[in-house]
Amino acid sequence: MAVNYDSKDERPYADGREARIWHLYVGDVDARLSNYKGTLLKILEERSVRTVYDCACGTGIDSVMLLEEGYKVVSTDAVDYFLEKARQTKQKREELADWQIGFGDWLDLKSAEVDHPAVGYDAIVCIGNSFCTLPDFEGGNKTLLKALQNFKDLLKKGGMLIIDHRNYDYTLVHKTFPPNSHGSIYYNSDRVFNIKADLVEKEEVAAKMTFRSDMDVSGTELEGDSDIKWKERDGKMVPTLELNNIPCYPHTLKGFTALLKTVFGEKAEHRLLPDFRENKQEDFVPNYWVHVIVNES
User: Fold this and answer.
1) Does residue 147 contact residue 76 with C-beta atoms inside 8 Å?
2) Distance between CA 65 and CA 78 in Å, rounded?
3) Which of 25, 182, 198, 260 has its CA 20 to 30 A from that of 211?
4) What pTM does this model have?
5) In the chain, at which residue ranges do the beta strands (DSSP E only) sit?
6) At what angle do helices 142-153 and 253-264 cross, to 10 degrees?
């Protein structure tokens, strides 16, 4: 994530509320990882990856999984609460003592609060629709290309970037999410309901999408939050927090691929995995497009 906003309060997750309940939105961590862990590890193993940079680590779910699998992982995020939760996990587990965690702005990654390997990383991971929270501050895709170039600059030759985005093509055409959009590879919480999206168009082009939903916090420490609103769910009134202030910037599959090829080169090895699936069924509608692109230079 980048922090190039007019004020800190404008950043995604700035008020801390969404970050504070992120674990509820994700749902069961083991269930989440089971959706893509095998394919992700296979991709890394195929290229003999040892060092991984998780540049949108959040609370550290994927970083910890990779550390447990024996990879050397460096993790950054631009949300203080996420970093705090990741550090708490590290402090509780002695075997994670060498895990580097720090603040990192995609537009200035060389100044991140971690030590990047001088030879570059074998792989950089940016998943969970994270890149789509980056606005194009400068216009003309300049900001997006700068961030992707910064990723490339931290990869060794032959290293790869694993990055994804939601299937916005489907959403823009149908004005709704793909089937089973919440029971997806990353987010499976049964607490989320009333899921909608506000689409902002500029000159007939999709410019921004803000997701709105309600989170049932029954039985959690958040039940007494001052922002609680009681709403009906399945015939019952439940204590609910409204999630409605995390904007995303839609990328079409063609457009995002073009961004990657602009930075990595037209001839760069590029694989496309729908929902981390290696074999796409003809009638399968993915929720996420996962790109794997290699630094050939």
Assistant:
1) no
2) 20
3) 260
4) 0.91
5) 51-54, 72-77, 100-103, 121-126, 155-166, 192-202, 205-216, 229-233, 236-248, 270-274, 288-294
6) 50
